[in-house]
Every structure is written in structure tokens, then in C-alpha cells.
Amino acid sequence: MIREKLKNSKRIVIKIGTSSLIYPNGNINLSSIDALAFVLADLSNQGKEILLVTSGAIGVGMNQLQLKTRPSTIPEQQAVASLGQATLMNIYSQRLASYGKLAGQVLLTRDVIEYPESRKNVTNTLEQLLQMKIIPIINENDTVSVDELDHLTKFGDNDQLSAIVAQLTHADLLVMLSDIDGFYSDNPNTNPEATLHHHISEITPEITQQAGGKGSQFGTGGMASKLKAAKRILDHDLAMVLANGKQPKIIFDIIEGAPIGTLFMKNN
Ligand code: ADP
């Protein structure tokens, strides 16, 4: 069975979205962050190399400032992200410390990855962190890039960033945690007949057509963005599992090869 191959995953990138970190009422989901920190720490103790790509900076900042709606101007969004990023990082560091682990913050922009010299600096830092058993916690650097139209510095969203990090670090597996159980034949929130894809080996036009938009106010790019990330993973012969981030402990089962979520992996 193809899922058996996941058991050998040594280097794993985990991507978590805002909807898994913030409750719909805007408050921070501490139990989810704590459960995630436990999983990261335990996998690290097992000898695996773990990198986390996390969203949530603006959501956390909005909560701190008690903002009900996302600020409309880019400088305001950047300021809120700056505040929230520091707090989010602090929460991760604290929770990981309670499980005996250290965290390093890495903030990236697209241009940094595109220039060979700065890309080398990024990969060197990530490799060194892993060697030192420090868990890299990676996010887009919103101070430099927030504008959706800014293609020079902007990754697009953290779905793309996580696939790029997996590619740069030659990770064995990307676990993408969303607010849905995987990729369905249609948006299950609007079509109850939709069925879950257990394995996708190629992003065909038919598959692309099945992707709808984002699901929540915190969602980023919806399924189209996740498929774009999955295509990058398949193009580089890597593996990705898209699964529900409600219970981060499912990551243990995913790595054991359990049929959870949607596996994106070539057939060979
Ligand atoms: P996040 O960024 O938090 O992971 P998104 O909102 O970007 O979440 O994407 C997940 C949402 O995509 C789901 O909640 C669902 O409403 C929507 N969606 C659209 N098409 C599909 C599909 N074919 N399969 C699964 N979910 C889909």
C-alpha cells in the first residue's frame, strides 16, 4: 500500500492555517496550539526533523487589539501582523519549552527564495536549526509583503510557502492541516454528496475543476491554492497529505500510514 511509504518520512514540514489556531469568535485556540506543540516535540524526540509553517499572525494581533474585522489598509495589516507574530511565536516557544524543545523564528519573502545567494542563506539556516534540534517556525514576513498583488515579495499564501519550504529542504513529507478532512470531489460545505479523494497522483484538469474557494473568514486560498501547492510537491516527487487540523495528534497516524485525508504522491 502506497501509504506505507510515509512511515519512512524523516524530514516533515507541517503547515497549519489560522482556522486551526483561532476560534471562530476570534479568540486563540490554546488547546490546538498546545496539542500541536506536543506533536512537534514528540516527533522531534522520535528523531524526526520537523519544520512548522504557521499562519495566524494577523488573527492573533486582531485578538490582542480586540478588532472585530480585518483592518482594511496594508500598513494597518502589517502592524497587526507584527504585533501578532511576536505573540504567536511567544506562545509556540512557551508551549514547546514545556515539552523540552526550542523554537527558531524564520520569516521569509519570495524574493529571498528566488535569489540564489539569499536562498542558500535560508537553507543553511534551516539545516543548521534542524541539526541543533531547534524547531524552525516559519511564516511569511508580512512587514515586507502583504499586498496580494505584490508578486515579487509575496508567496501568495502559506500553502505555497509550505510547499516551497518542503522543496528547499528536500522534505519527505508535507502535512497540510486545514479546516476540512481532505480534498473532495466538490466543496462538501455546499454539496453533501461530495466524496473524499484518498489518493491523488496527478493534478489533472478534472481535479482542478473540483476545487472551490476558501471556507472561513480566516481561510487563505481555498482548495485551488492547496492544489497549486500539491502540484509543486508532485512536480518535485515529494509527498503531501492534506488533512483536518482540528486534532493535531492525527499527524502521528498520518506518519504511520493510516488512511487519513488526501495523499498527494506519484504512483511510482
Ligand atoms: P485553510 O487556509 O484554513 O486551510 P481554506 O478556507 O483556504 O482553509 O480551505 C479550506 C476550505 O476549502 C474548506 O473549508 C471548504 O469550504 C473549501 N473547499 C472548496 N472546494 C473544496 C473541495 N473540493 N474539497 C474540500 N474543501 C473544499
From TrEMBL:
Keywords: Amino-acid biosynthesis, ATP-binding, Cytoplasm, Kinase, Nucleotide-binding, Proline biosynthesis, Transferase. CDD domains: AAK_G5K_ProB (cd04242). SUPFAM superfamilies: Carbamate kinase-like. It catalyses: L-glutamate + ATP = L-glutamyl 5-phosphate + ADP. It comes from the Bacteria. One of its GO terms (biological process) is L-proline biosynthetic process. GO terms for cellular component: cytosol. ATP binds at residues 15, 178-179, 220-226. GO terms for molecular function: ATP binding; glutamate 5-kinase activity. It is found in: Cytoplasm. Pfam families: AA_kinase. InterPro entries: AceGlu_kinase-like_sf, Asp/Glu/Uridylate_kinase, G5K_ProB, Glu/AcGlu_kinase, Glu_5kinase, Glu_5kinase/COase_Synthase, Glutamate_5-kinase_CS. Its EC number is 2.7.2.11. Pathway: Amino-acid biosynthesis; L-proline biosynthesis; L-glutamate 5-semialdehyde from L-glutamate: step 1/2. Substrate binds at residues 55, 142, 158. Coiled coil: none annotated. Belongs to the glutamate 5-kinase family. Catalyzes the transfer of a phosphate group to glutamate to form L-glutamate 5-phosphate. This is Glutamate 5-kinase.
